[in-house]
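Lab notebook, bench 4. The sequencing result for the construct came back, and we need a structural model before the next group meeting so we can plan mutations. Quick request posted to the team channel:

Model the 3D structure of this chain.
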Amino acid sequence: MKLGIDFGTSNSAAAAIVDGQVVPVRFGQALQFRTTVYFPETMRDPDDFSLTPALEYEVERLIDSGRRDALAAGRTPNNDSLRRDAIRIVRRQWMEEQVREPRSSAALLQNAVYGDEALDAYFLEGEGSLVQSPKSMLGYNLHPRARQTMTGIATHVLEHIRLTASRQFDINIRHATLGRPVQFRSSIGEAGNAQALEILQTAAIAAGLDSVDFLEEPAAAAMHYHVSHDSRHDTVVVDIGGGTTDVAHASVGGSAAPQVHRAWGIARGGTDIDLALSLAAYMPLFGRGITRVPTHHYVEAAMVQDMTRQREFRLHKYQDVPAPFDKRLQALQDTGNTARLYRGVEACKIALSELDRHQDALDFIERGLGVDVQAGALVASASNYLDELEGLLAQVRTEMATAPATVFLTGGMSRAGYIRDTVAAAFPESRLVHGDPSFGVVQGLAWAAAQDARLSDG
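Done. Here's the predicted structure in token form:
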């Protein structure tokens, strides 16, 4: 048996073909789980940091480098500022070292908790570490030990999927087709795609898979759409997820195999709307736009997927910020509270996709504190993403000779009316077909995996 795995930014799922039918893997009572991992063991406290002779040497090296850079730029170096910045960098590197020590990695990953249970356990325990959406970091410029840690996290997520599927199907699963976006989120351009695939390949083998191949997610969705249509026609698949937006032009249906002609993608998705909504509707309660706290502090607090930014946010001092924002920011720094806030932002986005108004209590920050968000705030928060989506779809339409017969819309964000309207407007001559928002890709991956397994056996 060969498994299809959708290792998603927000949620992950898996499925296989049994007796000619797609059978999803069950994770408890659910068919998917939030791509979130909780490590119960407490990480090293930042207050344990002290300058050893080796660290002091590194500080001096950074000061010398900063002084040379300043002189080369025609600036007068400020020794106090240079030392303060150097210590901050060394302290951050020291914290990251503690997370990535073999002692930490082995113990923490072995006791990991996954999905919504990870959030619940993190909130209950009030200590440990939470990693949300690790897929979103795979294409970033990673220090070698950071890469090792991300590989370890991906390994345990994939191992969790493989073992769960093996128990359900009563067979030791050793082969899989893994979905991938057209463009991973990346800070290093095309090299980020190669790095992300290398990490996932390494993680899959370490997770107990003997072989793994990759299929672009819109191509997988095209495979799912193909098996349900008898007549051959052209379609454009639009797959909008948490971290990426992928599009494919394919010929599907009929007795011939589906043919993907071309794929496009951008490293943007639902999490970008989450960030914009958090900054616009929630962060003013913490002084954004009111105090002199730099905007990037609020971005660090909102981006729960970025472990480095989360650590940076927890290191800031807010005792001099005017009341009541000082206490609120300090409360937001408490363990688990940025994750609680993000969960609220996600719920707000989903609610406002259907309702005109959403209220959210923030008693975990301050008794009686809450936010009242109007639907217009979501529209405004989604505007930048929608502009990028419109641009991508316009490019697709321009590069196609004729309009497709259908546009197949899938992915978690496809539930939102403003997404459906934007996609429909880009292809007015085509019939819009709504796929399964959560499982369109994984079903296609299951079909692709089964087809490849048959070819290998033959």
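The chain has a mean pLDDT of 90.
Will bring this to the meeting.
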